[in-house]
C-alpha cells in the first residue's frame, strides 16, 4: 500500500487529548475496532504514522491503514505491513476480490452518502451496504460518514 495521504488533520476520530496521537493511543484505537495489533509497530512523526509488521490478509492491511488515517491529527500513513501466511490460512476470497481487481479508496466530500458513492462506483445506489460492510468496524452506522474520511471501496 505504501504512503497513503489523508488530506486533513483537523477531522477524524479523536483518540488523544493532544494534537498528535501517540503510538500507544493509535494501537489501542485499532485494537478497540477489533483489528489485530499483535506484532504491529506503530510510530508517529509529526502527522505521519508508520506501521510495520505482519498481517494475515490484504483486507486487514487496508482496514488498519484506513483506521489509522481516519484519526484526528493524522495526515499520512506509511503502510509497511506485509501480508503473510499460507494459502490455507487465508480465507477464501469472494469472486469480487479475486486477483486483478483492487480495492479503491474514496475521500468523503460534503454531501456524500454511501448510496451516492455506490451509485458513482457501481452504478447502483442500493449497493451502499457493500461499502458499509467493507468499512466495518470503522463505520458503525451507514448514515454517519464525514467529509475528509477515507473509505475502502471493494471491487465490483
Automatic annotation (TrEMBL):
Location of the BON domain: 17-85
Alphabetized SMART domains for the sequence: LysM (SM00257)
Signal peptide extent: none
Region (Disordered): 85-105
Coiled coil: none
InterPro entries attached to this UniProt entry: Bact_Kbp, BON_dom, LysM, LysM_dom_sf
A UniProt-annotated Pfam family: LysM
Residues in LysM domain copies: 104-153
PANTHER family assigned to the protein according to its UniProt record, in alphabetical order: POTASSIUM BINDING PROTEIN KBP (PTHR34700)
Protein name: Nucleoid-associated protein YgaU
The organism's taxonomic lineage, starting at the top: Bacteria, Pseudomonadati, Pseudomonadota, Alphaproteobacteria, Rhodospirillales
Amino acid at each position: 500500500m505504501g504512503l497513503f495521504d489523508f488530506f486533513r488533520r483537523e477531522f477524524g476520530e479523536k483518540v488523544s487529548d493532544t494534537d498528535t496521537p501517540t503510538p500507544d493511543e493509535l494501537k489501542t484505537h485499532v485494537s478497540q475496532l477489533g483489528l489485530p495489533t499483535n506484532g504491529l509497530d506503530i510510530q508517529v512523526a509529526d502527522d505521519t504514522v508508520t506501521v510495520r509488521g505482519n498481517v494475515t490478509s490484504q483486507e486487514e492491511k487496508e482496514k488498519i491503514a484506513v483506521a489509522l488515517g481516519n484519526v484526528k491529527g493524522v495526515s499520512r500513513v506509511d503502510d509497511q505491513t506485509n501480508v503473510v501466511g499460507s494459502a490455507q490460512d487465508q480465507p477464501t476470497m469472494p469472486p469480487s476480490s479475486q486477483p486483478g481487481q483492487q480495492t479503491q479508496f474514496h475521500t468523503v466530500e460534503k454531501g456524500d452518502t454511501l448510496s451516492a458513492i455506490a451509485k458513482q462506483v457501481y452504478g447502483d445506489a442500493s449497493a451502499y451496504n457493500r461499502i458499509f460492510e467493507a468499512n466495518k468496524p470503522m463505520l458503525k452506522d451507514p448514515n454517519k460518514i464525514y467529509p475528509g474520511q477515507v473509505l475502502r471501496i471493494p471491487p465490483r
